[in-house]
């Protein structure tokens, strides 16, 4: 039961990563691409970490995985903010379709 739940979380997380990648390739401007990547990838990573935490051998290993996820959340938010400010500084207007 635990293995199948872990596989479920890992597969759903991979689907969210795929959705974020498709958003990067398909969306029209830098701002919508950033939105697709940050939302889908953060949720996908969270689900994958959840699946891996279920397979962790100890509470310390599960805590490390959670800590890594939190660090990556902060890093991706910071990086996307920097990219958006760079685009705004270059005068790139948001898409108005």
Commentary on this structure:
The protein has 97 residues and is an all-alpha fold. The longest helix is centred in the C-terminal third of the chain and has 31 residues, at 59-89. It has helices at residues 2-26, 30-54, 59-89. The radius of gyration is 16 Å and the shape is elongated.
**Fraction of residues in H or I helices:** over 70%
Low-confidence stretches: none
Q: Beta fraction of the residues? A: under 5%
**How many β-strand stretches?**
0
The DSSP helix count reads: 3
* Rg over alpha carbons: 16 Å
Distance between the termini: 47 Å
H and E order: HHH
State the secondary-structure class. mainly alpha
**Assembly annotation:** single chain
Largest sheet features: none
Q: Tell me, rounded to a whole number, the average pLDDT.
A: 93
Query: Can you tell me the overall shape?
Result: elongated
Features of the shown structure:
97 residues; mainly alpha; 3 helices; elongated
Write the layout of secondary structure elements.
Elements: H1 2-26, H2 30-54, H3 59-89
Helix pairs in contact: 1-2, 2-3
Give a short overview:
With 97 residues, this protein is mostly helical.
């Amino acid at each position: 039961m635990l293995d199948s739940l872990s596989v479920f979380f890992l597969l759903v997380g991979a689907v969210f990563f795929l959705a974020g990648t498709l958003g990067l390739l398909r969306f029209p401007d830098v701002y919508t691409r950033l939105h697709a990547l940050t939302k889908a990838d953060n949720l996908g990573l969270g689900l994958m970490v959840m699946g891996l935490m279920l397979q962790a051998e100890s509470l310390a290993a599960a805590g490390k995985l959670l800590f890594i996820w939190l660090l990556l959340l902060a890093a991706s938010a910071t990086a996307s903010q920097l990219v958006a400010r760079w685009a705004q500084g270059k005068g790139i207007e948001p898409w108005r379709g």
